[in-house]
Amino acid sequence: xxxxxxxxxxxxxxxxxxxxxxxxxxxxxxxxxxxxxxxxxxxxxxxxxxxxxxxxxxxxxxxxxxxxxxxxxxxxxxxxxxxxxxxxxxxxxxxxxxxxxxxxxxxxxxxxxxxxxxxxxxxxxxxxxxxxxxxxxxxxxxxxxxxxxxxxxxxxxxxxxxxxxxxxxxxxxxxxxxxxxxxxxxxxxxxxxxxxxxxxxxxxxxxxxxxxxxxxxxxxxxxxxxxxxxxxxxxxxxxxxxxxxxxxxxxxxxxxxxxxxxxxxxxxxxxxxxxxxxxxxxxxxxxxxxxxxxxxxxxxxxxxxxxxxxxxxxxxxxxxxxxxxxxxxxxxxxxxxxxxxxxxxxxxxxxxxxxxxxxxxxxxxxxxxxxxxxxxxxxxxxxxxxxxxxxxxxxxxxxxxxxxxxxxxxxxxxxxxxxxxxxxxxxxxxxxxxxxxxxxxxxxxxxxxxxxxxxxxxxxxxxxxxxxxxxxxxxxxxxxxxxxxxxxxxxxxxxxxxxxxxxxxxxx
Length: 508
Prior knowledge:
Strand 21 and strand 22 (about 380-385) form a beta hairpin. Helices cover about 15% and strands about 45% of the residues. It contains seven helices and 32 strands. It is α+β, with helices and mostly antiparallel strands. The longest helix has 20 residues, at about 175-195. The chain has two domains: about 5-200, Rossmann fold, CATH 3.40.50; about 240-505, Glycosyl hydrolase domain, family 43 (Tachylectin-2, Chain A). A seven-stranded mixed sheet has the order 5-3-1-6-7-8-9. Strands 10, 26, 27, 28, 29 and 30 form a six-stranded mixed sheet that branches. Strands 21, 22, 23, 24 and 25 form a five-stranded antiparallel sheet that branches.
């Protein structure tokens, strides 16, 4: 039986909507377009907003791909022109259901609820059912100091409204155009995912008493002022990641702001630390990056009597490497570094510790993934990574998991609910999974306001070949009094904990 889906659009629609229609068709649906007359909008300060977008695009090279208007894709599709909203109640009934791209200002609660008694209705909205379009509401939340934006796909069926898909997206201070473009890129995927049977509403649990801790807000933003401040900050300050460490028996990331520091030279930053204890000595493996070429490679330090020796360069390729995750299998050491620039997930084998490693194989190819961790849970190997779903989408939100019976498997199978989390508050790994008192804890990066702003801790409640659930427990923000602006890695092994923090240093 042919699957017919109706979609309401305006005659001129942005790229994200056109791409979403294309993805829906790839899922096997026949799309019928219903073209509405142009909306009557009077957006306040529209000229200043457009000027800001132009400046950010020209000066900071922020993409505007998904804001670019496109004519409605009528070729090869059935199209109907709707003169007024009342006509939607007389549409053909052979359709399976409707998806709406237009704003809630045009379709209010009463219309949606009434129409859903004939056909299921799906509509995207930010946070709550606001009265404007997506872009207008992103701008509004940006001004009020929000650091993340929740987008929900609501479905109305037989007059009953429910959330069927969630995504939480980051707002980057001073980068409004980049923020909007990234969010719209994500929006192009949501309805196609749901139509393909993906729903993530039960994958994350946040108890009411903890929700406010994830709702971090900053001060109100002036559009032009925020852009100029961000631009000046980039000109006059470098962002330098430094290493943190502390000896402790039980992993405790709550006290990370009190850890001892290891500072790189001014021309470099050190980040993504992973500790290792070998023959009664402590080592820290990490990403080293030189500002002059902005390409990361892997290095290590040796701690002797509390003094760091090194760094010693470990692995350098033509492309960027970071996040040197080390695992031990049958007394053999392996490393899974981040290699998104090579579009794969690599496995390296230790030939002689600590400084001699050789490439073993690609675990997964043709994947744009960052910060991979691997853990054996209940006789199954599980690979957690964050996938960049589209070139313009943020790369720190979409947590995907894969599984295999053997670490060296030729076929890592994707979880059917991928991405299991679409959430900028914890969707990117911040370190290894910790096993403690029979529980599994995953550390994530909170990327609201800026990438890698803070550290989160969640407990993995369920993991199987069909289900995934985790519960948010706590979050730790950087201590500005220490000169820390961001925190984005935490690891612990053999009574030794490491992390990293971002500080700002003057260029001149």
